[in-house]
Amino acid sequence: MKKALIVMSICLIANPFVINAASKKHRKKATVDTQVQTTAAVAATTSMPATTEASIPTKSETETLPSYLDNLSGNMALTSNYMFRGISLSANNPAVQGGLTYTFPVGVYFNVWGSNTDYFAPDGKKVSSEFDTIMGWQGSVLEDFTYNLNFARYNYPGARSANYNEVNTLFGYKVFQLGVSYTANYGGTHASGTYVNGILTFNIPSQYIHFEDVSFQAGMGHYSLARPAGNSYSDYLMTLTKKISERYTIAAMWTGTNGRAHLPPYDGNQIVGTVNAYF
Q: What is the rounded CA–CA span in Å between residue 260 and residue 21?
């Protein structure tokens, strides 16, 4: 009888711990089952095999801080001629170009961009490189309408007298874009310049050319310059771009002006080839 009482007492004392342990085990299994279902759903979306229960990481292992580098993008380009609004800034020679852009979730972005150049500033100094800093805001309304407003500072190391600021606007609706730019100190001449251009861009259906991911662009612009800044002129362009992969494109462009800039041979008809890499 005494032994039976002792056994019953031990059972009564141990019972809450057994129930608690069983409850914890049940809750843990439910949590793991939920994790397995979520992992399987994600795997199905990304065409990756589902993670097995044995390899599911703990909550502390899966919690990671967002990477600010996700908002950083960049590009590099090798072009046969650096053309800017119909005029060569590399003396009709090749140029290596590249830029970095950091974009915030609200659409505000900061951009730096550079290229080699080959021309002379108004004070006679040789301009051999360009380094631009740009701050802007871009976004879309109802998907079809896009906007891009920015303030650009064009810097020319070694020829600082050519530095100038410009306000740029670009509005798009479906395949059409309209841009307006203004500066009060074009190329360091202390004279104003207003550039207005329109561009039409569309993808060419593959059944017409037997190639996929090919786009065509055509545009024209007009540069109104105050007399000290140079002669006002119009420019034109047509571009074919082929997407090679998610990172690379190649492009062939024809560009020219109406000749009123009076800067031969840098404002004449040009055929330009460019290879772009994006990251």
A: 88
Tens-digit pLDDT profile for residues 71-116: 999 999 999 999 999 999 999 999 999 999 999 999 999 999 999 9
Residue 146, classified by CB atoms within 10 Å of its CB into exposed (0-12), middle (13-18) or buried (19+), is: middle
Using the 8-state DSSP alphabet, how is residue 192 labeled? -
Please tell me the chain's helix, strand, coil percentages from 3-state DSSP, rounded to the nearest 5.
25, 50, 30
Distances (CA, A) of 41 to 27, 32, 44, 62, 94: 21, 14, 5, 16, 50
Long-range interactions of 210-216: CB distance < 8 A, separation 24+:
211/242, 213/242, 213/243, 214/240, 214/241, 214/242, 214/243, 215/240, 215/241, 215/243, 216/240, 216/241
Report the distance separating Cα 183 and Cα 258, nearest Å. 22
State how far the Cα of 231 lies from the Cα of 189, in Å rounded to an integer: 13
Per-residue tokens: 247: 């990172």
Contacts of the segment 213-216: beta carbons below 8 A, 24+ positions apart: 213/242, 213/243, 214/240, 214/241, 214/242, 214/243, 215/240, 215/241, 215/243, 216/240, 216/241
Contact (Cβ atoms closer than 8 angstroms) between residue 100 and residue 67: no
pLDDT at 165: 98
Q: What Å distances lie between residue 218 and 117, 125, 142, 195, 236, CA to CA?
A: 25, 35, 25, 17, 8
DSSP 58: P
**Whether the Cβ atoms of residue 192 and residue 228 lie closer than 8 Å to each other:** no
Closest by alpha carbon to 177, among 211, 220, 125?
A: 220
pLDDT digits 0-9 by tens, 169-215: 999 999 999 999 999 999 999 999 999 999 999 999 988 888 899 99
Residue 50 DSSP code: P
Residue type, 187: G
Each residue's pLDDT tens digit, 17-35:
444 444 444 444 444 344 4
